[in-house]
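User: Run a structure prediction on this.
Assistant: Running it now.
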Amino acid sequence: MTITSFGSISTPRFEVNPPVVLAPMAGITNSAFRRLCREYGAGLYVSEMVTSRALVERNEETMQMVTFDADETPRSVQLYGVSPKVIAAAVKLLVTEDRADHIDLNMGCPVPKVTRKGGGAALPFKRNLFRDILRAAVQTANETAAAVGVAPIPVTVKMRLGIDHEHLTFREAGLTAAQEGVAWVALHARTAAQMYSPSADWSQIKVLVDDLAPLGVPVLGNGDIWQASDAVAMMQQTGCAGVVVGRGCLGRPWLFAQLAAALQGRQAPPDPNLRQVLATMVRHAELLVDLYGEHKGCRDFRKHVAWYLKGFRIGSEIRSKMGMVSTLTELAQLVNLIDAEQEFPIMAEGPRGRTSGERPVSLPQGWLDSPDELGDFAADLAAAELDVSGG
């Protein structure tokens, strides 16, 4: 079998090699999880999404979310915002205070409380506002970096195919982003209406790759990367420059070691046995406790248990207790009760995390009347950001 090696993604400030990006996921991609993933493989590990308004207001929780480990590099922040002015202020803060090496703009969130106010995946439909936000972010990043004498901070954008199949926005939005100077465009190959099901349409990633190739702007593909072979297949089929991995790494941070090997032309390491999985679980819990303290750290860890243990033969009583752990000692005691001599099960492959399927997208009344006019929606847009203020 021939193993293909893929190149890296270069920016003036850093190189992404292998070309793998951890997608920001609320409540998941905190510094503890990012560290765990980095211990397995190289790439770019993006923070949880933070809102530009909360950042400018120096919300305490938000400021913690843009505080990185001393050895974490490059430092990647995903910003969500609906106002060019506020986005510019947030970018200026990040660059001036040396809080980030990379800024990603979220234009793909399908969550109803965001889209019903015109934010997230709904926003690219308003093409003038979309352009203004990207322009404000890129220009501010470049001008501020020059003013403080540091290398340029790359700005990127992550988006979906559109609101639904009657309102696809990715091609026009991708071209706009390229023209405004983004370093790359990441495309989740589903519409907002599709949420996380059915399967991502990788053919649309190739469409955008071909659109942006003449402008020299790389496209990263996102959607249904469950194992290393999926990343190889996506890159071969679409010509995308790299992959963005979200739900595929839930309960399996070792995926980044497999991705690194596969994309660098090496044989990917096998999935771990249960003993190794349990050790990784304990390590994850310890990192969360270091970050939040034992009470909050263990509570945060609970949601990961089902993802780690999917497919393994473990009694329901132990599973239930592990999903309610309150201390590291309690977790260690439960781990010792498990028969750890089990190989990684085939049934553990495939979807994890959110699996919600297609449904109508919540939008402001009249939002789809015109892609150009913003009209009275400005107030709704401000509310869209306030709804998620604080991270």
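The beta strands are 9-10, 15-16, 20-22, 44-51, 76-80, 102-107, 155-160, 185-188, 219-222, 242-245.
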